[in-house]
Amino acid sequence: MARLVAFNEEQAVQKAMEVFWRKGYTATSMRDLTDAMQINSSSLYNTIGDKQELFKRCLHRYTNERMEEMEVRYKSPKSPLKALELYINDAVHIITTDPNSCLCLKATFEIEGDVPEIQAVINSYDHYRHRLLTHLLKSAQDLGEIPDDEKPEVIADYLGSIFVGWYNSLVLHKDKSKIVRMADLVKRQLKR
Amino acid sequence: MARLVAFNEEQAVQKAMEVFWRKGYTATSMRDLTDAMQINSSSLYNTIGDKQELFKRCLHRYTNERMEEMEVRYKSPKSPLKALELYINDAVHIITTDPNSCLCLKATFEIEGDVPEIQAVINSYDHYRHRLLTHLLKSAQDLGEIPDDEKPEVIADYLGSIFVGWYNSLVLHKDKSKIVRMADLVKRQLKR
DNA sequence: AAAATTTTGAAACAAGTGTTTTAAAAAGAA
DNA sequence: TTCTTTTTAAAACACTTGTTTCAAAATTTT
Questions:
Q1: CATH top-level class for A60-191?
Q2: What does the CA dihedral B148, A137, B161, A19 come to, rounded to 10 degrees?
Q3: Smallest Cα–Cα separation from B107: which of A147, A138, A182, A110?
Q4: Rounded CA gap, B29 and A32, in Å?
Q5: Cβ-based contacts with strand D at under 7 Å
Q6: A116 contact partners, CB below 8 Å, separation of at least 6
Q7: Number of CB pairs < 8 Å for A and B?
Q8: Is the dihedral of CA B127, B125, A177, A161 positive or negative?
Q9: What sign does the CA torsion over A95, A99, A101, A103 have?
Q10: Which of B112, B151, B169 faces A171 most closely, judged by CB atoms?
Q11: For chain A, what are the domain ranges?
């Protein structure tokens, strides 16, 4: 054995993620990244790899963090409807208080399928969320908490789409009340 | 007087727009642009200006084109509800057949308010669409074609948000049927 | 303590970035 | 035709890009 890596990789990736999240993939330079991570580029290439590999790691970190939160917060609730309403309220809160719009969303529109490996990370996150929502919706239907005349899978897709639009709305209008009103509308729609 | 400009500015901006639309603002280089526009960079800087000015021109072209189409297609219909349903069907068609997702959307998530002049162009487009939808919704309510228990302004915001999500969904899943099913759901929701 | 192995910092790399310069070509006005 | 004004092409501009090189520093094993 010999010399050990001096920097904390987790912390460094976290710092890189924050820069990518703020500036986007292309507009972030390697200098921006090494400055924020406080490591030399040789160390970066030695441990993690190139810019794209680092971005993938950042995306993984971003999505894993969020999936773990979801796992504890919405799994096996007494009332699935209450969990769904909580989910919607959380979405409003995250969208209106996070410093930037969703990292995955920005990456999706920036990359648009040009880098399959990056798309795959985002897809698996999207799929997790879709499964979670579908499960809650189906349970709520089975319990008679919401009508069962629409397919849970379609409502899940539709909810996912709405949240994407809320991010866009906030960037354009910086008006939280718009999001809140839409959320109220969605919660009403869910039950009828 | 002296020598005239040799290239067609409209055509050149159209070509530039196509490149920006495909690659995004940052990832598009001036070389990419002058190659596509088939003009020298000195001519470009002489007539239009720098990269940002050119991008603004492209955005204007993109949004004006779409607003003019809307103006003729959805204005003063016999049935506002039919116009709304047409609007939704058109959205499905555009989203699933255009070569890239919306230029404004990509720019919004890429720029995120960092360039107010660019935001302003997108905002005015968004505002035009919002006014159009609100007007149709209000008319439909007044005629009793749809229930009037939700505010037209909020439904308009909500519809706008959904369309944004559809763009995202298509990039991620490349599955038109998902969009079609959501559109059917939305059309049903409108009427109840 | 010496040897072996790896990380690190600083500099260098070539290629690409947005933009400007310069002189020649073009064309209306005199 | 000549003068005047403007556009154009090609090259150059200084700077930034992502990535690599290389010797010096660091640390574990012998």
A1: mainly alpha
A2: 150
A3: A110
A4: 20
A5: A 1-4, 6, 28-32, 41-42, 45, 50-52; B 1-7, 39-43, 46-47
A6: none
A7: 125
A8: positive
A9: negative
A10: B112
A11: 60-191
Q: Give distance CA B137 / C1' D14 (Å).
A: 56
A178 contacts in chain B (CB < 8 Å): 157
| Contacts of residue A96, Cβ cutoff 8 Å, sequence gap at least 6 | A170, A176, A179
Separation of alpha carbons B172 and B158, rounded Å:
21
Cβ within 8 Å of residue B112, ≥6 positions away: A100, A101, A106, A171
Query: How near does any CA of chain B get to the CA of A30, in Å?
Result: 15
Cβ–Cβ < 8 Å for A182, B158: yes
- pLDDT tens for residues A99-143? 999 999 999 999 999 999 999 999 999 999 999 999 999 999 999
Dihedral sign from CA coordinates of B35, B50, B10, B103: positive
Q: How far apart are CA B33 and CA B54, in angstroms?
A: 10
Hey, what CATH topology would domain B62-191 get? Tetracycline Repressor; domain 2 (1.10.357)
Q: Do B110 and A112 touch (CB under 8 A)?
A: no
Running along chain A, 192 residues long, what does each successive block of 10 average in pLDDT? Answer: 80 98 98 98 97 98 98 93 98 98 98 97 98 98 98 98 98 98 98 93
Give the per-residue pLDDT at A1.
53
Contacts with B91 (C-beta within 8 Å, 6 or more apart), sequence order = B163, B166, B183
- Please report, for residues A117, B78, B100, the alpha-carbon distance to residue A62 in angstroms, rounded to integers and kept in the order given: 15, 49, 26
Length of chain B: 192
Chain B closest CA to A25's CA: distance in Å?
9
Which residue is closest, via its CA, to the C1' of D30? Answer: A1
B150 touches chain A (CB under 8 A): yes
| Residue corresponding to tokens 């190139």 | A50
Q: How far is C-alpha B127 from the geometric centre of its chain's CA atoms?
A: 11
Residue B157 confidence class, pLDDT cut points 50, 70, 90: very high
pLDDT at residue B6 in the model: 79
Mean per-residue pLDDT of chain B: 97
